[in-house]
Inverse folding.
């Protein structure tokens, strides 16, 4: 049968072609790393929210001779889990983006090789959660806080809430929207804030009150902020009708930064007593192909240049002493004053149980 | 057949087996006891129950809404029909991140229903069901309508001449002929809604969870691989059964029907009844399908200084912050990825279709063991449509991690994953055409002295060229909109359109939101354009038109 031969021949040719294609992919993919010889590339594995100015990354290249390749792995939780799964045979050299709520999972699985970053002594003491062992290096902090729609509260001549306790009061009934603590990191942060405030025995009672007070839970930040919240640009267009939302302390400055023309006042504010502090870390991946380059990159992440660039790229706060937050942050409260914290060990021990009991309490 | 088999083994079966194996065999021994543990949890049983009934309800509702549409597209001629047929297919290839938000604004507060009757459906199961109709309308219209348009109306007329009432004639003649197509379409809709992910997350809120959502949660968020593995197996069995039934109905559909050229069966509607039906269908399409898309476009134009293209212009500047490059470049990325994915899907799909259509491959009288194997392979190719993206994505990570196949950080992984989803569409499009090619033509060519290559070029190629184009168009559109698998794969920072949209939506600020809407609009237009081109490629008069006209069936 001529056709069968024909098909076999075509199959053979395409097969070879495909393997060639795949091989090309491998080459251009891992670059010169796989040669073993010249290790000119350093690969940063991170989550989708990572951002840096091109000029800053170019400056790293100039200083060290290494080219940075950024590999993004979805949201923060997913990125950490992927790093855990590829333990010992990592996708890159440095992982950035594990925060204090997931830190124990990364450390217990031993995905990092210890390295003390140059310039670590300049990093603020309160964020050094792995002091002495140096498996991870703190890079930034962010605050998860309730945001409010300024116009709504001005129109109603109502004072915006200031604390967690306020949110359960009758004048704020049916105003708050938050995220699913099981799948969203601001949702989890807000739950952790309540456990920090009310303790192991009291937080469930607090959430019962919140539920009676009409808290709405949606699955992710995008829906909560862009659809339900009446104060955000997206929410205004979508007709959002909840003037309180769980978001970040940096959200008001971001609303200003990405508005055109820039308003004199941020349209939203932060309820200062509702904040939970997130700390993000970077670490040298155990088994990194380019260990030297990885170390240089970690040094760079806590260096002044990168730290200065961060606030207006990733909307987080610097951790290195002497680095000023931008004026935008000072003007619109981009940083929380007295955020709540929970030790990573305590989070690790209780996270699942807390989320489970929160789910059956609030969602079901 | 070897190449597609190796492809599927390497980029589908192996990664999925690896991640499921990791879950069920964490240490030295297999832990099959986990299966009973997981299936014994009331939460999991709730998820299973909800997954099943919402899929059943979605399928029923989709059929109810879309069957009149299938009839109208099959039997009526009206201006703009081709454009409209492309348009109703756009939702099918759009990613849910894009549409979910637009849909929300229709069903949620301040939406159409809210303004008219004060009804809000967000975070109710109704929102999920309606969105499923929105996404799967085209499946029914294309599968059922495609066949309907080729049924000879004279058969029904003959029955009526013999004294049957209109209803009886329809029931006895048309319905049995359509039955298998309706069944096949239902099963496809059931498959897509059974494995629904984004829609359930966005529109249902945290209170609703399908099996697919639960697998994502257990894998990507909780890293509970054993539970995820058990759930993956459960989904596997369910999807496998759906596909087995589907393969069976597809075969039945290919039984001898008298098919005619679709162009001859459609005519202008006549009488009040037919015009009313046409208007009802058009109104349904306008409200259910066009309106959500229009909301998206409207928001993309609704800039800070009134209506205009401010957000579109912003896409070209690189200082947005969310990316190293201007967001507009994600269009180029998407097109490149989709082109590579289409090439892979075409090669794999065409080879698979060629193998499946070989003479004797579908003899119904006495299926041999080989035939059964071939049929099994047919169903196997569809399996990626029903296996969760997170399972495939995480499977890639732990299975393709050794040289020479250390592809985890390679760009090729994205088109490979997209091709997995594209191949079934290529196979479904090409198979009927290849089967319709008369083998005797090739033999005749050979007898007349043509070399096999020449025979293929002169006989096969002209007949399959069009279906190849159609298949390419569909694979391309599906790859453009693919979000699930892409987001679970590590990517060097060159986001595809859907990934860029979701990243822009992940940031506060007017400009980011506006750009997300503008990019979504761009994605929609690109998808619509490739589908329109596909409509043009539909043949009109050549010999195998009947078979090609069923292109785009699922």
């Amino acid at each position: 049968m001529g056709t069968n031969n024909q098909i076999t021949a075509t199959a053979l040719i395409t097969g070879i072609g495909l393997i060639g294609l795949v091989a090309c992919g491998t080459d251009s993919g891992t670059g010169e790393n796989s040669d073993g010889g010249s290790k000119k590339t350093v690969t940063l594995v991170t989550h989708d929210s990572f951002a840096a100015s091109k000029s800053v990354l170019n400056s790293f290249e100039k200083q060290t001779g290494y080219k940075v390749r950024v590999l993004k792995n979805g949201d923060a939780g997913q990125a950490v889990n992927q790093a855990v799964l590829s333990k010992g045979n990592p996708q890159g050299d440095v992982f950035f983006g594990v925060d204090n709520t997931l830190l124990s999972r990364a450390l217990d699985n031993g995905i990092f090789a210890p390295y003390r970053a140059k310039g670590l002594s300049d990093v603020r003491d309160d964020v050094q959660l792995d002091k002495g062992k140096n498996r991870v290096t703190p890079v930034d902090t962010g605050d998860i806080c309730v945001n409010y729609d300024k116009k709504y509260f001005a129109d109603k001549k109502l004072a915006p809430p200031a604390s967690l306790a306020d949110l359960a009061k009758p004048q704020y009934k049916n105003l708050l929207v938050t995220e699913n603590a099981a799948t969203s990191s601001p949702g989890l942060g807000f739950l952790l804030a309540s456990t920090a405030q009310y303790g192991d025995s009291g937080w469930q009672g607090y959430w019962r009150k919140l539920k009676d007070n009409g808290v709405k839970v949606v699955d992710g930040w995008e829906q909560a902020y862009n659809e339900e919240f009446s104060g955000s640009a997206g929410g205004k267009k979508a007709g959002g009708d909840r003037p309180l939302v769980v978001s970040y302390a940096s959200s008001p400055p971001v609303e200003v930064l990405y508005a055109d023309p820039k308003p004199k006042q941020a349209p939203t504010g932060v309820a200062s007593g509702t904040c939970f502090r997130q700390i993000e870390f970077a670490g040298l991946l155990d088994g990194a192909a380019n260990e030297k380059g990885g170390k240089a990159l970690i040094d760079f992440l806590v260096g002044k240049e990168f730290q200065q660039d961060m606030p207006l790229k990733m909307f987080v706060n610097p951790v290195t002493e002497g680095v000023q937050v931008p004026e935008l942050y000072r003007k619109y409260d981009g940083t929380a004053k007295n955020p709540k914290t929970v030790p990573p060990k305590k989070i690790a021990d209780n996270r699942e149980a807390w989320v489970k009991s929160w789910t059956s309490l609030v969602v079901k | 057949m070897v190449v597609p088999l190796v492809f599927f083994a390497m980029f589908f079966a192996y990664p999925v087996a690896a991640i499921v194996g990791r879950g069920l065999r964490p240490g030295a021994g297999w832990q099959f006891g986990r299966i009973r543990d997981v299936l014994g949890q009331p939460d999991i049983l709730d998820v299973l129950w909800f997954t099943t009934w919402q899929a059943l309800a979605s399928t029923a509702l989709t059929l109810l809404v879309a069957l009149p549409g299938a009839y109208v597209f099959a039997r009526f001629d009206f201006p703009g029909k081709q454009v409209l047929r492309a348009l109703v297919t756009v939702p099918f290839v759009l990613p849910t991140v894009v549409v979910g938000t637009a849909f929300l604004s229709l069903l949620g507060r301040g939406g159409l229903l809210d303004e008219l009757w004060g009804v809000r459906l967000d975070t109710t199961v109704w929102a999920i069901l309606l969105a499923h109709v929105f996404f799967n309308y085209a499946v029914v219209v294309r599968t059922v309508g495609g066949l309907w348009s080729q049924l000879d109306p004279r058969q029904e007329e003959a029955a009526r001449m013999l004294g049957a009432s209109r209803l009886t004639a329809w029931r006895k003649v048309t319905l049995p002929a359509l039955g298998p197509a309706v069944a096949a379409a239902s099963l496809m809709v059931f498959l897509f809604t059974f494995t629904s992910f984004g829609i359930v997350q966005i529109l249902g809120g945290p209170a609703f969870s399908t099996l697919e959502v639960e697998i994502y949660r257990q894998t990507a968020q909780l890293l509970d691989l054993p539970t995820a593995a058990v759930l993956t197996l459960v989904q596997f069995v369910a999807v496998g059964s759906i596909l087995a039934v589907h393969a069976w109905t597809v075969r039945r559909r290919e039984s001898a029907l008298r098919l005619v050229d679709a162009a001859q069966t459609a005519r202008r509607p006549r009488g009040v009844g037919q015009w009313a039906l046409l208007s009802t269908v058009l109104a349904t399409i306008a409200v259910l399908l066009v309106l959500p898309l229009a909301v998206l476009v409207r928001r993309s134009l609704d800039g800070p200084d009134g209506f205009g293209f401010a957000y579109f212009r912003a896409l070209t500047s690189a200082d947005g912050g969310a990316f190293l490059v201007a967001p507009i470049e994600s269009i180029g990325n998407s097109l490149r990825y989709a082109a590579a994915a289409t090439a892979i899907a075409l090669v794999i799909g065409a080879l698979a279709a060629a193998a499946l259509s070989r003479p004797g491959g579908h003899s119904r009288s006495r299926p041999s063991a080989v035939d059964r194997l071939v049929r099994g392979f047919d169903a196997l190719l569809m399996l990626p449509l029903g296996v969760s993206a997170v399972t495939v994505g995480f499977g890639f990570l732990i299975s393709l991690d050794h040289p020479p196949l250390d592809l985890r950080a390679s760009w090729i992984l994205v088109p490979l994953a997209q091709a997995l989803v594209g191949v079934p569409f290529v196979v479904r499009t090409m198979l009927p055409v290849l089967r319709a090619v008369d083998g005797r033509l090739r033999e005749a060519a050979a007898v007349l002295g043509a070399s096999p290559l020449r025979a293929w070029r002169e006989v096969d190629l002209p007949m399959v060229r069009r279906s190849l184009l159609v298949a390419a168009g569909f694979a391309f559109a599906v790859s453009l909109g693919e979000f699930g698998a892409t987001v679970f794969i590590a990517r060097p920072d060159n986001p595809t359109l859907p990934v860029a949209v979701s990243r822009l939506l992940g940031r506060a600020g007017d400009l980011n939101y506006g750009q997300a809407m503008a990019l979504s609009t761009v994605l929609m237009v690109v998808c619509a354009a490739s589908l329109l081109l596909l409509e043009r490629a539909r043949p009109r008069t050549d010999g195998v038109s009947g078979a090609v006209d069923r292109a785009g069936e699922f």
